[in-house]
Amino acid sequence: MSAARDATDVLVVGAGLAGLACAGDLLAAGVAVRVVEAGDEVGGRMRSDRVEGFVVDRGFQVFNTSYPQVRRRLALKDLRLRPFTPGVLIHSPSGRLRFSDPTRRPRTLPDLLPGRLAGPRDLAALGLLSARDTLAPPRRLKRLADTTTRTALADAGISDAFVERFFRPFLSGVFLEDELETSARVFHLVWRSMLRGTLCLPTGGIGAVPRALAAALPRGTVHLETPVERLTDDGALTADGREIAARAVVVATGPGPVGDLLPGVGLPDYRVVTTYYHVAPRSPLGEPTLLVDTRRRFLNTCVLSEVVPAYAPPGRALVATSVLGRDQEGGERAVRAALGEAYGTGTDGWDLLTVRTIEDALPAMVPPRPLTRTARVAPGRYVCGDHRATGSAQGALASGARAAREVLQDLRW
Could you give the dihedral angle defined by the CA atoms of residues 234, 402, 364 and 141, in that order, rounded to the nearest 10 degrees? Predict the structure, then answer.
């Protein structure tokens, strides 16, 4: 028995998106909830830092307005969202190409004329694929045969050449793997969300999203800098020796603590990504657009200060560029050289602001991939997070919601 003892109905360990969603739903049902978070801020991986006057997200991230859980839980106008261009620029040996959605920006229609980015057969196949994914209800997409994304694109009639020119470089930055081995079901759901929503960033950084979720909870619900050492028969023991008794404990942390607190819970492998943040004296691209590389020397790059001017002090430009894996010796130098070529400008005057390597950036979602999994682990023990769903913000929030439903059922609340 610890020296100090406290009690609540449900203890949620972790204040990322899943934990905050779970806590919010339980509180709405009248359950007493406490959320403990090891870090000094909510959000888990979805956090933003201030570095020398710049807003630096922990790895390049975007916010999709189409996610149902997002629209249910957040007042989007309060986030002061700034959109990316609905499309992507592609750096290729033959020059810069543009893939865009002409239904949103009709003036970009010539960019999709046959012969520029793709031939007529590929464009027709892309149109049919996009129409099906846009109009189909999610439950139908979830029941599709679960192959790899590469197989799904081939089955849709898209040529290998178009895959290599657009889909492979673009989706490598979405799924953080460059072999298109991600589950086809996940691909169709993500493609649907991109076609139906807008990719944005909050003016205050991506960390504004979990902060908004936490702000909606009653004051005193979330306790920061409170790591949990282990679960006990009655609840959990914090690192400072305090026991918190609870009828149910929901573990909503990253994969490392999940494995420590709930041994035996199956966890997927995780993708590792490194993002380099450079400061330029002027913007190398005068639009808020993602730029990818057919040679895949980087996953994607963008001028964040073109998306959200507040990300950088006046007169400076903040460029974020992501690569697969960890930072390697000479990696920044190679990235800088590739950026000079892709942006068509000199980079000698750019300063490296900081580097962020995210070890658990995204769960590997290879088939067969269950899109939803029960939160129940043992009597009174539950787990939630993006590793239990699609790996997106929608997946994390939905996993937290499922955990709350199952806790309420089991507690007969």
Answer: 160
